[in-house]
Amino acid sequence: MAMNNLGPAEWFVVGAIGPPGKRRFYFQVVADGNRHSLLAEKQQVEALASQGWRSLQRSGVEVDASAVESILSSDLEIDDPAGTEDFRVGTINVGIRPSGLMNISFESDRDDQGLMFMVSPEQFRAMALVARRLVRAGRPICPWCRLPRNPEGHECPARN
């Protein structure tokens, strides 16, 4: 696997492009002045946010709430990579160093490539809060079949 180690990230965020039901989710990382866009599934965004959040809580690492708020108040909009993303995410790994920095790695689902970088707990917490908002902003869930409702209409298999 050709793993590109970016070192410390200057910026790490998640976002979505397009209307609910047709959104494309991206993780974007800026390290050493270079932007990297990684296409992901909604479930991967949700899993990284929730599992990383739990890992941070269990580790006992202190998170500066005012630093998280400062990150959240900055421009966290992603740029639409318009088909120029680095790769589609397959596997995601998260680890916490004794210093409290978090190691994150993304591996491609198709080729032999990947990215690895470090973020502060505050950067991660800000990304996780944005990720949770994004996931909740999707299509409403049908109370009968638990599948997302499409804006054009919903043929519920449970009410058939």
Task: Offer a concise description of the structure.
The chain is of the alpha/beta class. The chain is built from three helices and seven strands, in the order E-E-E-E-H-H-E-E-E-H.
Mind explaining what this structure looks like?
- The chain is α/β, with parallel strands linked by helices.
- Helices cover 27% and strands 33% of the residues.
- The protein has helices spanning 42-59, 65-73, 121-136; strands spanning 2-8, 11-17, 24-31, 34-40, 87-96, 102-108, 113-119.
- A 7-stranded mixed β-sheet has the order 1-7-6-5-4-3-2.
- Helix 1 (42-59) crosses helix 3.
Q: Which key terms come to mind for this protein?
A:
160 residues, alpha/beta
